Amino acid sequence: MHLSPGTLLARVTLVPVVAATAWLAVAFPLLCLGHFTPLLGVLLGGPALVAALVLLPRLAPDIDDTPWWALLLVVLVTAAFAAVQLAYHSEQLVVRRDAASYAQYTAWIAEYGFLPIPQQRELIAGNDPALTYHSLAYYQVDDVVWPQFLAGAPLVYALGFWAADLEGLVLAPPVTGALAVLTFAGLVARLVGARWAPLAALLLAVCLPQQWISRSTYSEPVAQIMLLGGLVLAYDALERRARGRWSAGHTLALAAGLSLGLGLLVRIDALRDLLPVVGFVGLLLVARRREATPLGLGLAVGAGYGFVAGFGYSRPYLNYLADSLNPLLFISGIVVGGTAAGVLLLWRRGIPRLDRPPWLPTAGAVLVVVAMAAIAARPLLFVQRGHGDEATGIYIGQVQEIEGLPVDPDRTYEEMSLTWVGWYVGWATVLLATLSVALLVRRMALRPTPQWVLPLMVLSWTVGTTLLRPAITPDHPWASRRLVTLVLPAFILFAVFFLAWARHRVRDRAPHRLRRLGTPLAVLGAATLLLPTAATAAGIMTYRMDVGSIAATRQTCAELPDTASVLIVDPNTAAKFMQLIRGMCGVPTAQVVETDPETVHRIVAEVHDRGRDAVLAADRAERLHPYLPPWIVPRHSFDVHTEQDPSTLMKPPAGAWRFNGDLWIAVIPATAATPSIS
Prior knowledge:
Oligomer: single chain
Number of helices: 26
Strand order of the largest sheet: 2-6-5-7-9-8
Number of domains: 2
């Protein structure tokens, strides 16, 4: 059967979200049951994946006016992005920030298939109060350890671990990031036009934060697939229209809701992004659109997965976020209740017209411009302060000293959020996107188009709320994570839409002699968007983080006896390496919080009493010498000195910093006499 380029583009760009949704729908219950194994993953997840990929993409309506070159360029951009990110992928396994935390989470569930993580204190020193089992991003609760984050991204990256162990794990994010670019191209092709999809995909692919998060095991690439892909599915559902008892429109709407809801399984802050979807379901109900029920049902099921993952498997993390999460939960309840009340109130009246009074559409457009101008002016008006976290303040003060800035550890830099967007995609993109949203708000008020309403609601809401309160440690590229999932794609989408609209206006409405300028002006506009984006990306995109960590991890594990019980004697090493040793080496591990020689010797004796070999660990050999017999020499098992991400506050990141990963171990066999206390 001959497939047109429009059909192929529609189907290919649905593949990532359909595959991810089907996989997560099966994989998370397996993890809950404690049987997340390769065998069950293949036996249960495989058929679900195949069935979804066979059924759903075929339901997508064709994308009109799609030339072959547009399809080929989208595929080329996606492939090139994947190739570059694979070449520059990181090996972040030592926990300092979230990427390595996700990597350790992934490795644990891929290897063992269950949560929580047992402390195995009975193999060290029982309930000795001198020991603790928590580390960065891993919480000690009673006699188990819970990972910090939600399970969505680790469940996806586990496929890479199953395929090729640690090498497969670190190569999974580049592939996922490329699939996110492909998904975004599908959204642009539907909303703006297939001819503009390659440009939008290229802008996102070149953008520094998109490249950066796709090189390490962050959750954002998976979240992009789920949320942007959910918008793609919703567009197709509305385009197909649900008819009769059940139709293609119903199926696509159900899949759209499930995908969007499962975004909450990936990131807890997706709850904020989903609030407009609730309101949109209400609008569909009032408009008597049959897509409302399956969309709402899918959203509820997917969000249910997320709430189980959060409150069932990441509860200590949610408790840590309580100051921001509890108000969001309260607001979510108000949105759900308000939507239900609104549906009841408007059921007979229908959706109110937004073009009455006649000045209202224009006022809405003006309000968009004024709001963006106010956000842009914030750095001129005030400085935001108040981290609420002492460790964050200390770190910010250190970065300020490195950059030669006035030391102000309490500063959050939140007022600069729009400046961050300008760094990464250029101020021309910011300007054109703002004008585009104003144009769309006016257009939707005059002639609502359901296919555009949901993306406009979700993306505008997320941009506004994120820019007002990024709520992230403000050093870069780290802080750009808050922009990656939806904010930067939104600015690119809207800016490209404005170029397409302007070209159309010139071609159709300009004087005849000027109409030939439409294409040159579009090319100039594309270059204006692309060049600043590429210039910023060139700053840090030519290095690899933590190279050598996989080999060093394997060496460390090889040097640990099978009967080892590891005692880490300094807190910095415990924070970074405890879960690596416990999870990737598979041996009981704890931190000794009271490091006087008498206490350490006592715990070593308790380990020996259990017939196990005691292994002391620290970041320097000198830290171990006070506890060792003279005949035992520490070994430098983990020795990695390479590059890592920089940290900047007042300018885009450029160039790498040094990473020094050191772990020294000393094995005290159970057959050795416990050293005497001098």
